[in-house]
Amino acid sequence: MIRTIGLALASVLLISALAPAAAAAPGERCFPETGECLAGRFRQYWEANGGLAVFGFPVGEQRGEQGAEGQFSAQWFERERFEAHPANNPPYDVLLGRLGDEALRRQGRDWQTFPKGRPQPGCQFFAPTGHTVCEPFLSYWRGHGLEFDGRRGTSAAESLALFGYPLAEPAVETNSSGFSVLTQWFERARFEYLPANPDPFKVLLGRLGAELFDGHAGPGPAQYHAVQRPGWPHPLEVPAGFTIDEAAAGLASPRFMALDPADGSLVYGALRTSEVVRLRDLNGDGRFDQAQTIAGGLAAVHSVAFVDGQLYAAAEDRLVRLSNFDANGAARQIDQIIALPSGARDLYGHRTRTVARGPDGKLYLSVGSSCDVCLEDTPLRAALLRMNVDGSGLELYATGLRNTVGFDWRPGTAELWGADMGRNNLGQDRVHDELNRLEAGHNYGWPFCYDDRVPNPEFNDAGKCTNTTSPVFNFPPHWAPLGLVFYNRFGFPAAYQGDALVAFHGTAADQVQTLGGYNVARVRFKHGQPVALEDLVRGWNAQGDVWGRPAGLLIMPDGSLLISDDLGGRFFRLRYVGG
Fold first, then answer.
1. Alpha-helix runs per DSSP H in 215-315
2. Which of 19, 344, 503, 554 could make an SS bond with 550 (beta carbons 3.0 to 4.6 A apart)?
3. pLDDT mean across residues, the chain
């Protein structure tokens, strides 16, 4: 069993090799093992209360995080989560997460139903939870704690503050390294007994922070498993701990969607039928049972948004507001907010329009180009527009965007990010689709340049590219990103918070020899910047048999992810179930 320590060391070394080096700013302490840093009150707290031995290395940066109790600043460690509560007096301005309780709930285990213990000689019985702590765990529990009183030694109150009450009696369980070990769960920790280890390593704390933070605590790439449901021609693959189900089927080209805040129903744009449709889950089973047409005759309607309870829909040629619904849910009144340029000059013209409300209260509307590469006859194309909710004050927010269908604001910031489609007809390895940070007044290069200010051969004018803004992150060429959302809830592992999720519609057969995309991917962010792309859902392209094309993404109130498929006419729901 001494192998356990060796495996842990090997994991740290591999993580060190994968993690980018962290450069310490003044007052920071950085760890090359994980590429993360500590600063301020969290650093003081970590160093004063056991540091590496108790909490482990930091596995994430300090950031705003959405939890069951609301928004707070937090940082995750291998064995804990620090939460900042500045309104409290020290030392209670930093609180520890109840990770033992969270991990058990994530596993579907209700500790309140576990068999109870009883008082025993040489042990300590905790009446609030009805469990007993004996050796070999009792000495460890009593010997470690948070420093509250400035006195030598560790008081029972200090131990309780660090670990919390026991939630279970000791039992043999399989730990994250795959070994069967004697285990006891506490509110904030999991104790593991490894008798073959030398002192003082016979009792170790489980890596609950790492396990809960990313759902994949070990080194190496994420592991995937196949999910097959009735009616699917092929299985879909999702990361370990996730599952995916069908939420609706038999629909006509569902694109972008939104939840009605009044009743929780789902409203989406149906591109091919030019309709706005409402779906309802009548029996609460997670599957939509009823469809109602809200409005028709809206050319290539692609996206919808609720603004102050009012329903907006973006069609190819206009942005409208729908109201005065009849008993069947149809809108009796359709008011035009603004007219939009429409039409296409070639096969690569773009009909989609995406509308969303920004944190400034204004409407943002993306309008794609009319062609692959050309000079537009109106500044309202290949641009992101901004306006008041009544359509007044229309302005060009960002330009030079060939087709930025998906955009969203990064949680906890005012940063707007968008995924833009690169041009065609320069070969299967060019041009990259891209992720841009969209800033007011910036031009992103189209039609004069692509990638990092590379001149397009149609114009070959490097001077036109000099003052353009380059992409922050490149996607594979021709994958066609559509939906983009930042994950901002707590249904997925905590590491997903602040990461971008992107629906790739898939490559066109006339541009590549081997089809790519047709997936939903995760863009990992680190210190506010995108650093890696990895699959989240894949399998709609089964060795050339394409049976689905992801389009829209919507994060649901329970933290699950809703995915529209405009080829197969389905909605899918991705959930994290752990285990």
1. none
2. 503
3. 92
Q: What's the CA gap between 507 and 505, in Å, rounded?
A: 7
Closest CA to 319 of 309, 304, 297: 304
Write the pLDDT tens digit of every residue in 539-571. 999 988 999 999 999 999 999 999 999 999 999
Asked if 241 contacts 223 with a C-beta cutoff of 8 angstroms, the reply is: no
Q: Which two tokens stand for residue 570?
A: 């389905």
In whole angstroms, give the CA distance from residue 289 to residue 273.
20
Spatial neighbors of 138 by CB under 8 A, at least 6 apart, are 122, 123, 124
Query: 178 phi and psi, to 5 degrees?
Result: 90, 10
DSSP codes of every residue in 325-392:
E-TTS-EEEEEEEEE-----SSTT----EEEEE-TTS-EEEEE--SSSS---SSTTSSEEEEE-TTS-
CA 501, CA 553: separation in Å to the nearest integer? 8
Pairing of strands 303-307, 310-314: antiparallel
Structural tokens at position 473: 């992150």
Residue 455 has phi, psi (to 5 degrees) of: -65, 140
Assigned token pair, 101: 């309780």
For residue 35, give the nearest of 473, 524, 502, 492 by alpha carbon: 524
Instruction: Provide the CA 68 distance to its chain's centre, in angstroms.
Output: 16
The structure's pTM equals 0.85
Query: What is the residue-wise DSSP string for 390-421?
Result: TS-S-EEEEE--S-EEEEEEPTTS--EEEEEP
Other Cβ atoms less than 10 A from the Cβ of 542: the count is 15
Residue 1 has pLDDT above 50, yes or no: no
